[in-house]
Amino acid sequence: MNKDIIFSNSYIIYKSKKIELGPKAFYIDGQLSSEEASKYKYVYNSINEASKHLTHGSEASPMVLYIAPWVYWVDNPDDTEIRLPKDGENTPFGLEISCEWLKFHGLSDDPQNVVIACNRGQTMGAKGNFTMLNIKGDGTYAENITFGNYCNIDLIYPLNPKLNREKRGSAIVQGQLIFSNGDKVVARNTRFMSRLNLGPFWGSKRTLFESCHFESTDDALNGSAVYLNCTFGIYSSKPFGGTRGTGAVFLNSDIQAFTRENQYFVKGRGPVTAVDTRFSAEDLNYIGWRDIPDTEARYYQYNVSLNNKSIFIGNNDAFATVDMTNKNVLNAYRFEYKNKIVYNTYNLLRGDDDWDPMGVKPIVKAAEIETRRDYSTIPTLLTIKPTQQTLETGKDNLLLEATVNRFGNFEMKGEKVNWAIEDKYKSLIKLQINENGTCLVIPTNNENETKEVIVTASTLSGLESASVLYIAPSFINPPNFTKLPVITKFKEGNLQLDYSLDMTFNDESLITWYRCKDSKGNHPIEVAVSRFNKPMKSYELSSGDVGYYIMASISPKHLRCDLGESKTAIFNKVITVKDVKSNAKILIPNLENMSGKYQPEIIAGYWSLDSYAPLDTKEHNWEGDNSRDPWFFGEGINGAAGVNGFVQNTKGARMRYLPVGNNFGDMKISFTAVPSKTAGQGFSSARAQYMDVGIKMDVKNMNGYALRIIRTTKYSDAVDFVLMKYENGIATPISEPVSTSSYRPNCKITVKVKSNKLIVHAENTENYFTEHDANEVVKIVDVETEITQNTFGGLSFQHTGTVGSGATLIKDLKIEWF
Fold first, then answer.
1. Contacts of 402 (CB under 8 A, 6+ apart)
2. Which of 142, 310, 438, 709 has a Cα-to-Cα distance from 593 of 20 to 30 A?
3. Rounded mean pLDDT of 616-642?
4. What CA–CA distances, in Å, run from 218 to 121, 233, 238, 507?
5. 21-31 pLDDT, tens per residue?
């Protein structure tokens, strides 16, 4: 198989070139047996064994591994033992290497022939995000190599099909390749193969990928690298989790997008530049930098196309895109000299030590002499600090400072920065430009409302940045009460907080409602609160209020003041059954005003909110966090952006309700779930991340039944619905799982108990695409099972996934007892 390699006991000949073996030159050939390899010095049959004998190299004399064609497993794929992180760490590694200036040199022009492999990922052969290599040291170099994590993709080895191997599983889990802490990292003619969290030299500083190929889904690429003449197969919408510092640059690269509808670059923050970048796709409607870019963010492009047609990236948020056409900043990335395009990697990677991995410095310097222009010290990033701030007129001033960086986070002093605002903002702020280049912002808002103002900064070369300021008018004292608050009965079954304030503005007072043990307000428990500057003056009584005194607290406020000193009022009578007019058998929680505070007590008629780690998740070493409120009402993110509802604020967020009464029969819960995840996976990983919807529950001891919605290792774009029985907090399945693609934004779910049956129906109200066989992964869930009747009437939500991008927003919640 290695016909191009001639091996002697002290040297190899590759392509007619003799390579002497020695302390800094090893030969690795997987076809050799361990016995054969042991006969020769500096000869090995595995990467792992060779790594035990490395010598630190230098830039002039690197440590080189000459690797013959073969598949080299750094972690035994047949070992059934689960890989665990070391104590005190989060990441299990296949192989850790500490070596300065280490070079992986594949002895084949085709990188498919030299494969360094593993096949483990999160929950698939490992606990934690399994990572193949952890390389510590500057100057790591790879050429003619494939680095592959074959946890979720098949290993196809054309040179010897006997070495093919099927993927460990179909569900896309975090299967990572290489961590690096080094500077001056280079990969040439190298393939990086995995799916989720690809990780090509994650953590490296100045990094160049030249003529490399990448296959990945989300959170995958190196966010501080230059990609030159590279190709990409992108299988989901956000290949960067985020970028760092001066970000990532694409030069003369081809991106094949397998995403449908919308393709983005980054999930989080950080700059990206695309130059001479060509997209190809079959079913792509839109290409953006980020689904919702920050107002202050700027991204750079030149000559980008989709299916051979020029495009402007991020058309829906055009403010964020800087087209570098006819701008000098383009020369930082590419310029034309003697009728040839020069990709200016020297300018990008030179740092302070003149690093020139592509050897283009002589061309750059010649162009500078001939054109009398600068091509070697052109900055690529302009930032402003702070990026956001709220200022009060007459009280606050703000100093804005701009920083100009060359690529690689090398600050460039003395670059002139121009500050500006649009005409519509000139009545709201005044800019004072200082000699040192800083900008003093003086608020001058004489209107009543706080206004958003965008201050922009730019350089002559074409760099841009912005700062988003919220300019408030001068604040005045909070209004005084002209009539102290009093609670009165208002219409049928409602209490009204009656008060008057000395002001002409709209009322934005904060009102909070409590249930108390007595008329003095002892043992108050918050049950409702006003939000979004809309005072909650009316409180609808429910059966949970019976036997309690109702208290309201009001902190006066309008749009030109902070909250004033609160006053309280208590309704003068205990609430009786006759006072309640709402139907006790139907509960439609007012989620916008429902309290999200930590409240662990189980009391009839109350919502209990806390954070809890169920026993079946303990192997993942986490605890409920009750140091902050477990839930909040507000807007979700990603798939739940633009939607308001009740959202988990901590991992393990739990919500339970114990109705008033002793014996309950049939019961129904309906709601709309809006996951942040949009591809149907619901949760961030398959590490026991689920949401249980409990019905007919004894919520104090956690006995009853539940629908479990859980991410598993079966699919990366579907979840399982499983019916569960709870016994003293321990949940066990009582039905076969149903895999569904419907758990994505706007999934309508109904859970009910009718006689001795637990019945669940779920479907999505939106149109979406799925490639799954309808018999294996359904779009509509209908599942039921027989249960033993009980007299409980409680309900619960238990979410064990991560929050933020892993959360699920809940809205339109309705509970019925029959």
1. 382, 383, 384, 417, 437, 438, 439, 457, 465
2. 709
3. 93
4. 14, 12, 5, 46
5. 999 999 999 99
Count of structural domains, the chain = 5
Q: Are 108 and 191 in contact (CB under 8 A)?
A: no
Together in a domain, 816 and 689: yes
Backbone phi and psi for residue 51, each to the nearest 5 degrees, phi listed first: -65, -20
Average pLDDT, the chain: 96
CATH number, domain with residue 526:
2.60.40.2700
In this structure, are 535 and 487 located in the same domain? yes
Bridge partners for 155 per DSSP: 165
CATH number (domain holding residue 460): 2.60.40.1080
Reading the block at residue 698, the tokens are 């004894």
DSSP state of 424: G
Q: How far apart are CA 252 and CA 452, in angstroms?
A: 39
Q: The pTM is what?
A: 0.88
- Written as one letter, the residue type at 549 is Y
Longest CA–CA separation in the chain, Å? 100
Q: Under the phi-then-psi rule, with left for phi > 0, alpha for psi from -120 to 50, and beta for the rest, what region is 324?
A: alpha
- What stretches of 292-376 show up as alpha helix (H) in DSSP? 345-349, 361-371
What pLDDT was estimated at residue 490? 75
Confidence of residue 1 (pLDDT cuts 50, 70, 90): low
- Name, in order, each residue with C-beta under 8 angstroms of 54's C-beta and a sequence gap of 6 or more: 63, 97, 99, 102
Given a contact cutoff of 8 angstroms between Cβ atoms, the answer to whether 287 and 306 are in contact is yes
Q: Identify whether residues 414 and 342 lie together within a single domain.
A: no
Single-letter amino acid, residue 494: N
Q: Considering only CA atoms, which of 242, 239, 204, 209 is closest in space to residue 226?
A: 209
Q: Hey, which bits of 641-689 come out as E strands? A: 644-648, 653-657, 667-675
616 SS3 class: helix
- Which one of 557, 582, 607 terminates a domain? 582
Whole domain around residue 552: which residue ranges?
Answer: 476-582
- Which residue, 221, 213, 219, is CA-closest to 249? 221
Res 489: pLDDT: 87
Question: Parallel, antiparallel, or unpaired for β 43-44 and 63-67?
Answer: unpaired
Beta strands 11-14 and 261-264: pairing type?
unpaired
Bond into 386 cis (ω within 30): yes
Together in a domain, 419 and 401: yes
The H-assigned helical ranges of 421-489 are: none
Comparing C-alpha atoms, which of 538, 565, 534, 542 is closest to residue 552?
Answer: 538
The 3 state secondary structure assigned to 173-202 is CCCEEEEECCCCEEEECCEEECCCCCCCCE
Confidence of residue 770 (pLDDT cuts 50, 70, 90): confident
Residues 367, 401, single domain; the answer is: no
Q: Quick check: helix, strand or coil at residue 232?
A: strand
Q: Looking at the structure, do residues 803 and 721 belong to the same domain, yes or no?
A: yes
Domain termination residue (choose one: 472, 488, 512): 472
* Residue percentage of the chain with pLDDT more than 70: 100
